[in-house]
């Protein structure tokens, strides 16, 4: 027992020495980015490709997409801790919780790894460099405006949205409400159904609601991926195209429903651009760049260091070329990103 | 008249049925759209899948054990079904058959370990829950399979006639088959006998291990079937399928009068238990009561049902003693 | 990471109940065989072997930062394991550990943020809530005469649902800085104070079972309820106390999670708190606490939970492992109960 422990200690020491010897050689200046979403979710799938492209284009040591097993803060925390131990030295993180993630993010930065809160923000004070994502409030606001236009300027709206733990959800609820208020009572939000960003509960709640209240509803705005998919299917099932809908993101089901006329349009976000430009920014920061003092950050509810990754409305005519529109946004932001937000030696 | 009522009151299914009728009257009085064809269709969709889940647990309760892995087997079968169609391009029927076979194998593995080692079903199925769920995550990397053919989607989302969805068909077959197997076939009698009193069953020449294996194979099959049906209904092979089945799978049989120590379950009672849960879930949405309340109600329902069952048990023992 | 546990080895001796009925007498197999065949020895061996494999196989495993985070997770897993162990001792189980834990965390967060209570009071009151919820479980079980499985299955749903209903799934995030600093604190670069808390509580539990009449009554009530009742143990009362204790221990685990994240979040243990179930059972069962009741191995539970945390951490370090973690843990559980069975039959044969 004692012997085996001392053997272990020897091994551990040997391992440490190995790691210590190997680490500086490998990590002298190679940036190893980890792109870590809050949990498994189709929205983030574009990060994988974005990381691979960024690695090639900017000659990074790595830019790997690593997913926590479950949409749960403790799982994400232990994955982040583990990735730091594995030698990743720069992080794009979708915060599992706007406050609860701060302690882990602080540990990452204390260990010398810069962090960008990506696709969702951290609440100030935070050690993350800045927040880079869709201005979700704005996107929900614009989407609701489009919906109101499609509804002919009056009627009753149902808002279907995502996880209550998601820092963006409350912003979306407020923005939809704001757009409706601007019609001076012609449009009202009759129901907000939240916490349905997983298929089983979404299927159950949305169908149960439409079953009981389909006649009292003129429009549906969805501001999360899964509800958009489920609601698209539900409208197809009802089939009369009376209820207007504006969805979010680019799931096949939603795009097809737009083409077939069951859904009016969708608010595209730019996850690819987030991953690609974010990886680039982290590498620049690790190579001596600083976040520019007085950079033109936007201020949103959670933070005053926010950069919009872009959003665009796609209707029936624009649906076929949605990849093109996403790439166009990315190109536009990337063109002057460094000069706008960074100061480099 | 009175003897009829008292005889009815003694059956397992009468109480739950009375609750259903009563609840329907009340809910539809407040909101007539509750009985609209579309709403009935939604109700039947929920009941169809959930009753298969409940039957999967019921057959294990019948033999006096528990199966924590019902959801994990269902989830694994679901993603295998969708995955085999998307990645290998198998035709839906073949993929479904393979997924159901996988469920049977998983159930058999549970049954084999339990009867060979004598370790409690709780521990064995807790371990296998973890193994199956881990395999699910390992295979899918927690991403859904989207490649579900149109024919499967149509099966999960269209109706036979009026408000009756196609999904109700397999559920009805399962109910009929369970009733036939449990009450009209030797294997059903064996399972109930082993659940009621294992050593007595053994003495009367019943092979306990084979009854246990049968029960777990059936449970695995039904769990896998529920997973396959959910893929059709959700139109994708989602790795989280099965995560939330545990409470429901116990609630429905218990509301339907099942005795947890084994030997006594009711197929129709379980079905009505599922219907009660579905009506309550719907009613909470219709009355715009906080959806979070569903959990509380479900838990209280279980407590109420086990309490009632316990009372009936005590009373029945007393009548038996008197007679 | 091994240092603290092996120091514990001497202190936290396994507690044996007065009446042990698995047919093993103290004579029979020579002492050293019995020692080599104990669960605890097996667990230490496994911990050492896996530690060596991970340290050699991945550069990150033995880094001070990783040892620190490993200790921190371990501390929480150990508390979760203890909270199940104290109920398993009575021959029952408590599926609502996770739900109680979340209720305590949210209660603590509410007291700190909304009621503005001082830290010590908030923690104390929240733990009292845990004790009350646990005691409610106990009372329902004793009064109804039903198995704890179904009762705690139902209360898991009720507790969690009520908590969500009252808070609307809101998280409480105004946790005092000194409290979240405690979660980040490191001794000597790699030791988390949370682990020291778990060790201290382990010592207290071992003391409870070994030296106090109450602890012995708990073991007796679990081993042979009827016999214990005859010899004057109030079995019902003892079971209620065990469940209340389970609530407190689950609460301590939850408070640790709050300290670690700096926020009380309703989803911290998954839906209904289900995510705690596996660690809750893995620790005690790997540690050799029989599900039949009547025997508690505090050291075993401690080591079992430590092994689980070590495995989870190590598999995360290997890239391929991360999504298969749960499968490995399930296989480990299966292997452990099978080995336990084999050891028992071996000892029984040798003993005859």
Plain-language structure description:
- The complex is a heterotrimer of chains A (345), B (323) and C (352).
- Chain A is α/β, with parallel strands linked by helices.
- Chain A folds into two domains: 24-134 and 271-310 and 322-343, 3-Layer(aba) Sandwich (Rossmann fold); 136-268, Response regulator (Rossmann fold), CATH 3.40.50.
- Chain A has helices spanning 2-27, 45-58, 73-85, 102-110, 136-150, 167-181, 199-213, 225-238, 252-259, 271-286, 322-335, 337-341, and strands spanning 32-36, 62-65, 90-93, 115-118, 131-133, 155-160, 187-193, 219-222, 244-248, 265-268, 290-291, 306-308, 312-315, 342-343.
- In chain A, helix 2 runs parallel beside helix 10.
- The longest helix of chain A is centred in the N-terminal third of the chain and has 26 residues, at 2-27.
- The radius of gyration of chain A is 22 Å and the shape is elongated.
- Chain B is built from 14 helices and two strands, in the order αααααααββααααααα.
- Chain B is mainly alpha-helical and 323 residues long.
- In chain B, helix 3 (37-62) runs parallel beside helix 8 (168-184).
- Chain C is globular, with a radius of gyration of 20 Å.
- Chains B and C meet through helix 6, helix 12 and helix 14 of B and helix 7, helix 13 and helix 15 of C.
Comma- or semicolon-separated keywords:
heterotrimer, A: 345 residues, alpha/beta, Rossmann fold, six-stranded parallel β-sheet, 14 strands, 48% helix, disordered N terminus, B: mainly alpha, two-stranded antiparallel sheet, 2% strand
Tell me which CATH architecture of chain C applies here: Orthogonal Bundle
Oligomer: heterotrimer
Question: Main interface pair?
Answer: B-C, 46 and 45 residues
Instruction: Categorize the overall geometry of chain C.
Output: globular
- Biggest sheet of chain A, open or closed, and with what strands and sense? 6 strands, parallel
Low-confidence stretches of chain C: 1-28
Residue fraction in strands of chain C: under 5%
User: The CATH topology of chain C is what?
Assistant: ABC transporter involved in vitamin B12 uptake, BtuC
Pick out the low-confidence regions of chain A: 1-27
Question: Kindly state the mean pLDDT of chain A as a whole number?
Answer: 85
CATH level 1 class label of the largest domain in chain A: Alpha Beta
CATH evolutionary superfamily of the largest domain in chain A: Response regulator
């Amino acid at each position: 027992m004692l012997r085996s422990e001392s053997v272990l200690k020897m091994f551990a020491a040997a391992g440490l020495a190995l790691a210590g010897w190997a680490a500086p050689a490998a990590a002298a200046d190679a940036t190893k980015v980890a792109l870590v979403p809050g949990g498994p979710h189709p929205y983030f799938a574009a990060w994988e490709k974005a990381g691979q492209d960024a690695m090639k284009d900017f000659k990074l040591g790595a830019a790997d997409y690593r997913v926590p097993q479950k949409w749960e803060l403790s799982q994400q925390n232990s994955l982040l801790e583990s990735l730091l131990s594995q030698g990743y030295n720069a992080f794009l993180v979708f915060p599992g919780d706007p406050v609860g993630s701060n302690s882990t993010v602080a540990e990452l930065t204390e260990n010398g790894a810069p962090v960008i809160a990506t696709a969702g923000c951290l609440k100030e004070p935070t050690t993350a460099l800045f927040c880079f994502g869709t201005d979700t409030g704005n996107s929900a606001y614009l989407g609701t405006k489009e919906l109101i236009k499609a509804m002919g300027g009056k009627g009753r709206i149902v808002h279907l949205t995502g996880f209550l733990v998601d820092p963006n959800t409350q912003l979306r609820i407020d923005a939809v409400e704001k757009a409706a208020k601007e019609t001076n009572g012609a449009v009202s939000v009759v129901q907000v159904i939240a916490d349905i960003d997983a298929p089983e509960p979404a299927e159950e709640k949305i169908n149960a609601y439409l079953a009981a209240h389909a006649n009292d509803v003129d429009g549906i705005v969805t501001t999360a991926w899964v509800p958009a998919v489920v609601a698209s299917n539900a409208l197809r099932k009802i089939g009369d195209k009376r209820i207007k809908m504006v969805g979010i993101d680019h799931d096949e089901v939603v795009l097809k429903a737009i083409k077939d006329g069951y859904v009016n349009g969708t608010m595209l976000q730019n996850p690819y651009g987030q991953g690609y430009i974010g990886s680039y920014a982290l590498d620049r920061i690790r190579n001596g760049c600083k976040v520019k003092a007085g950079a033109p950050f936007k201020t949103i509810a959670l933070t005053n260091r926010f950069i919009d990754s872009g959003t665009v409305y796609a209707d029936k005519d624009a649906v076929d070329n949605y990849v093109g529109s996403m790439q166009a946004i990315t190109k536009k932001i990337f063109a002057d990103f460094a000069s706008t937000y960074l100061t480099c030696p | 008249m009175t003897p009829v009522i008292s005889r009815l009151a003694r059956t397992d299914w009468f109480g739950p049925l009375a609750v259903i009728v009563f609840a329907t009257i009340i809910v539809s009085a407040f909101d007539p759209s509750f009985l609209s064809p579309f709403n009935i269709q939604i109700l039947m969709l929920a009941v169809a899948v959930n009753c298969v889940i409940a039957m999967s647990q019921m057959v294990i309760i019948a033999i006096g054990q528990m199966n924590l892995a019902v959801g994990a087997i269902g989830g694994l079968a679901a993603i295998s079904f969708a995955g085999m169609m998307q990645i290998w391009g198998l035709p839906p029927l073949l993929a479904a058959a393979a997924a159901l076979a996988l469920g049977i194998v998983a159930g058999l593995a549970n049954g084999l370990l339990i009867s060979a080692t004598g370790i409690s079903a709780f521990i064995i199925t807790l371990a296998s829950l973890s193994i199956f769920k881990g395999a699910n995550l390992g295979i899918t990397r927690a991403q859904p399979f989207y490649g579900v053919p149109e024919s499967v989607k149509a099966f999960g989302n269209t109706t036979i006639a009026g408000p009756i969805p196609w999904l109700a068909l397999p559920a009805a077959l399962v109910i009929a088959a369970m009733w036939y197997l449990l009450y009209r076939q030797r294997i059903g009698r064996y399972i109930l006998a082993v659940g009621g009193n294992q050593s007595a069953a053994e003495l009367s020449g019943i092979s306990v291990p084979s009854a246990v294996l049968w029960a777990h194979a059936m449970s695995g099959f039904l769990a896998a079937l529920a997973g396959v049906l959910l893929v059709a209904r959700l139109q994708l092979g989602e790795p989280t399928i099965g995560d939330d089945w545990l409470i429901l799978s116990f609630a429905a049989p218990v509301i339907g009068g099942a005795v947890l120590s084994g030997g006594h379950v009711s197929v129709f009672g379980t079905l009505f238990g599922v219907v009660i849960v579905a009506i309550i879930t719907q009613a909470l949405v219709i009355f715009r009561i906080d959806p979070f309340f569903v959990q509380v109600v479900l838990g209280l329902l279980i407590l109420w049902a086990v309490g009632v069952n316990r009372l009936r048990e005590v009373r029945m023992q007393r009548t038996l003693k008197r007679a | 990471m091994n240092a603290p546990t092996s120091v514990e080895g001497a202190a936290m001796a396994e507690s044996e109940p007065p009446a042990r009925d698995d047919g093993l007498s103290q004579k029979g197999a020579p002492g050293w065989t019995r020692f080599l065949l104990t669960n605890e020895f097996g667990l230490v061996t496994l911990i050492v072997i896996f530690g060596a494999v991970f340290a050699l196989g991945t550069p990150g495993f033995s880094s001070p930062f990783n040892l620190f985070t490993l200790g921190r997770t371990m501390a929480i897993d150990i508390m979760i394991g203890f909270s199940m162990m104290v109920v398993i001792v009575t021959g029952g189980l408590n599926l609502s550990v996770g739900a109680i834990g979340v209720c305590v965390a949210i209660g603590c967060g509410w007291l700190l943020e909304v009621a503005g209570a001082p830290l010590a009071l908030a923690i104390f009151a929240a733990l009292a809530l845990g004790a009350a919820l646990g005691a409610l479980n106990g009372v329902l079980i004793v009064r109804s005469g039903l198995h704890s499985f179904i009762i705690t299955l139902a209360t898991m749903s009720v507790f969690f649902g009520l908590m969500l209903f009252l808070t609307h799934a809101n998280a409480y995030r105004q946790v005092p800085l000194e409290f979240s600093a405690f979660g980040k604190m490191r001794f000597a670069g790699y030791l988390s104070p949370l682990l020291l808390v778990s060790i201290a509580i382990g010592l207290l539990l071992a003391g409870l079972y070994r030296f106090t009449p109450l602890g012995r009554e708990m073991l007796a009530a679990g081993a042979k309820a009827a016999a214990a009742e005859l010899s004057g143990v109030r079995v019902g009362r003892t079971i209620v106390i065990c469940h209340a204790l389970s609530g407190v221990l689950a609460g301590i685990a939850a408070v640790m999670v709050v300290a670690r994240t700096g926020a009380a979040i309703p989803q911290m243990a998954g839906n209904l708190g289900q995510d705690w179930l596996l660690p809750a059972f893995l620790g005690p069962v790997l540690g050799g606490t029989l599900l039949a009741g009547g025997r508690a191995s505090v050291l075993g539970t401690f080591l079992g939970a430590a092994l689980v945390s070590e495995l989870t951490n190590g598999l995360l370090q290997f890239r391929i492992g991360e999504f298969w973690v749960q499968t490995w843990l399930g296989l480990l559980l299966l292997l452990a109960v099978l080995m336990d069975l084999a050891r028992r039959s071996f000892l029984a044969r040798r003993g005859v």
